[in-house]
Amino acid sequence: MSRPQCPRCSRPIEYCLCALIPQLRSRTRLLILQHPSEVKHALNTARLAALGLSNAELRVGEVFEDLPELLAQPGYQVCLLFPGEDAQSLAQYAEQVGEQPLLLVVPDGTWRKARKLLHCNPLLAALPRVTLAPGLQSRYRLRKAPMSGALSTIEAVVSALDILEAPARFDALLKPFEALIDGQIKAMGEQTYRRNHGDGA
């Protein structure tokens, strides 16, 4: 029998994170497109990001029939946060568009699933691509990063907003994320965590 869940953060009631989720305003609009395989994941950071930002929307699916409408936000310059040969640094791209606010589209899923989202939605693949600065370190202590600089979705969102909305900072978004990870480590036990994810000490 499954445990009762919080209808907002989808965590078991006894581990509800809602008290830690901020409500932050941003000029930048976030559109997070989540692959269905991520919805039931215990560490669903895309949901936390969307809950903590007033100007963010989370959509779940593989094919988004209404993508043209989602991207047609008057006054916004649209770009995709995803690496690629022709990707520009986010800071450089933002400088080029000047005062116009950005609609930042963020695919959420494993790298393979995120690529599938682009493949299934050609309109996404056609967007200008932007990337974060290389060498960023993830606080995601429960997964080994598939490549240097790989971040969880919520970390990528915070890093992007810190660039676009400077001097404003969005670190408060990471509080429920860090509490979630601490809870997972506590549940598995420190020794198990160290053996599987730590330094073995």
UniProtKB/TrEMBL annotation:
Keywords (alphabetical) are: S-adenosyl-L-methionine, Transferase, tRNA processing
Q: Does the keyword Flavoprotein apply?
A: no
Q: Pfam families attached here?
A: DTW
**A GO molecular-function descriptor:** tRNA-uridine aminocarboxypropyltransferase activity
GO BP term (any one)? tRNA processing
Specify whether Transferase is a keyword of the entry.
yes
Domain DTW: where?
2-189
User: SMART domains from the entry?
Assistant: DTW
* Family according to the record: Belongs to the TDD superfamily. DTWD2 family.
Write down what this protein is called: tRNA-uridine aminocarboxypropyltransferase
Species: Pseudomonas borbori
